[in-house]
């Protein structure tokens, strides 16, 4: 389970990383590394590989901190997304080496679809889609919306979402599945 956010300014830390201040990356690492390792471990399933993923993700955070846009989301969520995407890329690149469960497989499929869409569209279309996505998310029932955000932004597993929301696991899985179907329909 992720710790409750405190007064640490993740957006400012990312801005400092973008300006080449390594102590800002060290602060992020000290505050989040154990939780981020958990995100990676849930996806790649083996600790040595999860540690490699975490290392690669922190390199990516350092190199891409300048691309973070606070207007598009919270810095903490961006950091978790980088780790999640790095782990999913690792699984995709090592598909023969890593056993993948149903939940990770579904996340990989969604991630590949998003990457394909992003690679074929220009920035203006992407911004328009993000605006539509925000509107589509607003149409979901609050419980379904929260489950989807926890899964796809915070990188939580279905079990963690059930625990955090005090909702039965089967309900969480159904809400995410139906919510994603509703989002896909709304976006088309």
Structure summary:
The chain is mostly helical and 188 residues long. It is 76% helix and 0% strand.
- Provide the residue-averaged pLDDT: 82
Helix amount: over 70%
Task: List how many beta strands DSSP finds.
Answer: 0
Strand content: under 5%
Terminal CA distance reads 34 Å
Shape: globular
- Quaternary organisation: single chain
Structural summary, described in words:
This protein is an all-alpha fold and 188 residues long. Helix 6 packs across helix 9. It is globular. The chain starts with 9 loop residues before the first helix and ends with a helix.
List the helices and strands and how they pair.
Blueprint: H1 10-18, H2 22-44, H3 47-64, H4 75-93, H5 102-119, H6 123-139, H7 142-152, H8 158-165, H9 169-187
Helix pairs in contact: 1-2, 2-3, 2-4, 3-4, 4-5, 6-9, 7-8, 7-9, 8-9
Structure keywords:
globular; mainly alpha; 188 residues
